[in-house]
Amino acid sequence: MTLQLQAPSLGASISSFVSPLRRSTHRFVIRAKAEPTDKSVEIMRKFSEQYARKSGTYFCVDKGVTSVVIKGLADHKDSLGAPLCPCRHYDDKPAEAGQGFWNCPCVPMRERKECHCMLFLTPENDFAGKEQTISLEEIKESTANM
Amino acid sequence: MAASTFPLRSSRALQNPLLSPFLSSHSHLNPTPRPLLSFPFRLRPKTGVKLPNGPPRSFKIFSVRESNAPPVTRDSWEKSVINSEIPVLVEFYASWCGPCRMVHRVIDEISVEYAGKLNCFVLNADIDLQIAEDYEIKAVPVVLLFKNGKKCDTVVGTMPKEFYIAAIERVLKQ
Questions:
Q1: What is the model's pTM?
Q2: An example Gene Ontology cellular component term from the record (chain B) (predicted)?
Q3: Range B77-173 has CATH code 3.40.190.10
């Protein structure tokens, strides 16, 4: 998959969290919420476990939240080629994925351990559970009725 | 505590909600001293499935279900939100946003408790791109409050129920 990089540069957009990407031609492509591939779910599951350990963060007490986010990352990996954060709204997803700011782990996570998707929570966060592992079965089970 | 409230495993999690400037436009409002908490964050027991007084249905299904609040779309936006006689709450969400599902549960409760005083809707920002852009939606979940067709408050991120209630009360009193 080729990704179009439309933004000239990231610039100083970090403080405002506003994408530097200008509105491009709207892509009114409405995709049905298809299931991500098992392969991508497994890649993102493993990535999540590894990154939680590496960053000293924990999954949410409600692993349903974790599961949905992992599937969302997998879905974006399938459709965009990059695990774009599923908890943001983008005018132009392919351009955002190419630009990379919100590809998981996003810049706020890497710099300040801020994950508003609640995938990686610091131990003192009141939503944090005690686990850094999640099985494929758990993901499937908790998202079975979506 | 209301009978409709889901069994609480722990309310401690809500007393110091996730509050960072990044997430919230209202962080200055908190904390309120030990509010009565009813937002069920811990839906699944850590081990086993036996909860005292637990409902017979499965927790795991409950924990990720879609919202009960009716959806609003571009076609119904004008009628349901802009021209509404009473204040309106709209939760913008995305299909694969985990924390949005936590907020769905809160909005479900609020829509029942405020029936007749506040209309609650959910909007899928993945589908209604134009409305999401009109209101400059960046992060989801985000809850917008409307009165007389105008947006008058915004709550970004995943907040405890009391946080939304406080915002709603302010709007209703305006």
A1: 0.72
A2: cytoplasm
A3: no
